[in-house]
Amino acid sequence: PNSQKYSHFVIISQARYQRIKMKVLLAATLAASATAFTPSGLNAKSSSLSMAFESELGVQDPLGFFDPLGLLDGADQDRFDRLRYVEIKHGRICQLAFLGQIVTRYGVHLPGNIDYAGHTFDSYPSGIAAIFGPD
Q1: Is 37 helix (H, G, I), strand (E, B) or coil?
Q2: CB distance 101 to 130 below 8 Å
Q3: Each residue of 20-55: pLDDT tens digit?
Q4: Cα separation, 132 vs 34, whole angstroms
């Protein structure tokens, strides 16, 4: 009687459960991080060439506008917008690289071969050991 009551449940191994759980977690993380690659809705343009960028988004007390290398000395709004775009793009690439490091350290590797000699992705160690060896 009890076996008929629970016959619709599938019993899977713990290892298979962990793989499924990791895949679902990875898919949810990728779906959530996809919003990082959508374009920003901020397209404010100014016609003033002598603008000091003190009223831009991200300027906070106590530092105010922070440009320690002087990259924007005498720059116009287009130069500021370009540098801000590049900074955001590089930040997003770093976030993906960090996520890739975490996922690889967890043990998830791409399927298949990395080269024509037949070396698989999981045949290489994780992290800096991939370059210098496991020692």
Answers
A1: helix
A2: no
A3: 888 888 888 877 777 666 666 555 544 343 346 888
A4: 33
Of residues 23, 50, 37, 46, the one with CA closest to residue 107: 23
Own/partner contacts of 21-29, CB < 8 Å, gap of 24 or more, are 22/106, 22/108, 26/103, 26/108, 29/99
pTM over 0.85: no
For residue 125, give the 3-state DSSP assignment: coil
Answer yes or no: are the C-beta atoms of 41 and 15 closer than 8 Å: no
Query: Tens digit of pLDDT for each residue in 58-80?
Result: 888 888 888 889 888 888 999 99
Structure tokens that stand for 59 in this block: 């300027």
Q: Read off the tokens for 104.
A: 């690889």
Residue 35 · residue 20 · CB < 8 Å: no
